[in-house]
Design a protein that fits this description.
Elements: E1 8-10, E2 21-22, H1 23-26, E3 27-29, E4 35-44, H2 54-66, E5 82-91, E6 100-107, E7 118-125, E8 131-138, E9 144-147, E10 153-156, E11 161-170, E12 183-188, H3 193-207, E13 212-214, E14 219-223, H4 228-239, E15 242-243, E16 251-255, E17 260-263, E18 268-269, E19 272-275, E20 279-290, E21 301-312, E22 322-325, E23 329-330, H5 331-340, H6 345-357, E24 361-362, E25 364-367
Parallel strand pairs: 1-17, 16-25, 20-22
Antiparallel strand pairs: 2-15, 3-12, 4-5, 4-7, 5-6, 6-11, 7-8, 8-11, 9-10, 12-14, 13-14, 16-17, 18-23, 18-24, 19-22, 20-21
Length: 368
């Protein structure tokens, strides 16, 4: 039988205790965020690897005119050592004028390579059209391109994209609401009512009743001091409070192209039977009683024992091929059983879809 490779990642933590995490790892302060900047510029000094587009010549003519040099009418500067580029950068929160940020430079014409080029002074604008930074400097290009006279060509990575570390200087700061009002709002990265409630309880336990209130499943409002210095210290205390986030909802993510299956520990399967091709998987769950010795210091406990039996070719003489699931069986046992017979990703995806359609899969099924 031809076997297929099935890559399965099982995240099974249903029996493990929850670990505490800091609030700064679970939430961010509302309004404290970065802003995107974009711009246009010219890269010069290329080794005959520039572009031949018309707007590059127009941009060069405009730049020279601002510098006091006027080209004769009708002259099209077709310099091969110039390339028109698009610039983009990210302006961090609380960035102040005079600080420097990194800039990414990308060719927007037919330039072969930006290697060895230098970016001339170019403004970076925000979504409001205002200039927040000015970029200039030598490019660092990780790609390489070379060609021969016979038409042969080799390209390593992407030579049409470069980066200028600390290549832009901030000219304008962005106002944020951190120092405004009498409260700080934390927004959870993953919306969850239980986690928001636990955050409120942890903050109130440390700082006093009614200090924090939950606005919804994402936002938690915390009363904060008006003084800027005290507010920074207060935010630092809040960020380092440990809480135990609630488990994510039962969810299965299936990548049908790569065969990757991610299952969390809350997934359960209700009683069901699925017939699929020649695969036969029977999963049952029994309970065993652990009885300590008469003189041992222990208690009688019930220990669950799961039995997985895999066959190929049918159950019994009638040749029926069924997947039999008893109540309480976890989905990781299904995946293990399918893996044992070397089934492909499409088989597992088909089984999961059938269980979901029958209402026996207590989880959200996401197929990408």
């Amino acid at each position: 039988m031809k076997h297929f490779i099935l890559t399965t990642l099982l995240l099974l933590f249903s029996w493990q205790p929850c670990y505490a995490e800091r609030i700064k790892d679970l939430a961010s302060i509302a309004g404290v965020r970065s802003n995107q900047l974009v711009g246009f510029g010219l890269v010069v000094g290329l080794n005959k690897s520039g572009d031949k587009t018309k707007f590059t010549g127009q941009s060069l003519r405009s730049m020279l005119a601002k510098l006091g040099l006027t080209l004769p009418p009708g002259v099209d500067p077709k310099a091969k050592n110039i390339a028109a580029v698009a610039l983009h950068a990210e302006l961090p929160a609380f960035a102040k004028p005079g600080q420097k940020i990194d800039v990414t430079v990308s060719s927007i014409g037919d330039a072969k390579s930006l290697r060895g080029g230098s970016l001339l002074m170019s403004p970076l604008k925000g979504a409001d059209g205002k200039v927040y930074a000015v970029a200039q400097g030598n490019l660092v290009v990780g790609g390489l391109s070379a060609s021969g006279q016979d038409g042969s060509k080799i390209t390593v990575n992407n030579p049409a994209v470069g980066r200028i570390p600390n290549g832009a200087m901030v000219e304008r700061s962005v106002a944020n609401p951190f120092n405004k009002g009498n409260a700080i709002v934390f927004n959870l990265y993953q919306s969850d009512f239980t986690t928001a409630n636990r955050m409120v309880e942890a903050i109130n336990q440390l700082l006093g009743p009614d200090t924090a209130t939950a606005l919804d499943s994402t936002s938690v409002k915390v009363n904060a001091p008006l003084n800027s210095s005290q507010r920074v210290t207060f935010a630092s205390i809040l960020e380092n409070i440990d809480i135990s986030p609630d488990d994510a909802p039962a969810r299965i993510v299936v990548n049908s192209r790569s065969g990757t299956v991610v299952i969390n520990g809350k997934v359960r399967v209700q009683p069901a039977a699925v017939s699929h091709g020649s695969l036969t998987v029977t999963i049952s769950e029994n309970n065993a009683v652990s009885q300590p010795n008469a003189l041992a210091a222990g208690n009688t406990a019930v220990i669950p024992q799961s039995e997985v039996k895999v066959e190929e070719g049918g159950l019994g003489k009638d040749g029926n091929h069924m997947f039999l699931f008893n109540p309480g069986v976890t989905l990781d046992q299904i995946v293990k059983a399918v893996n044992k017979v070397g089934a492909g990703p499409s088989d597992l995806v088909a089984i999961l879809e059938a269980l979901k359609s029958a209402g026996a899969l207590r989880a959200e099924l996401i197929i990408i």
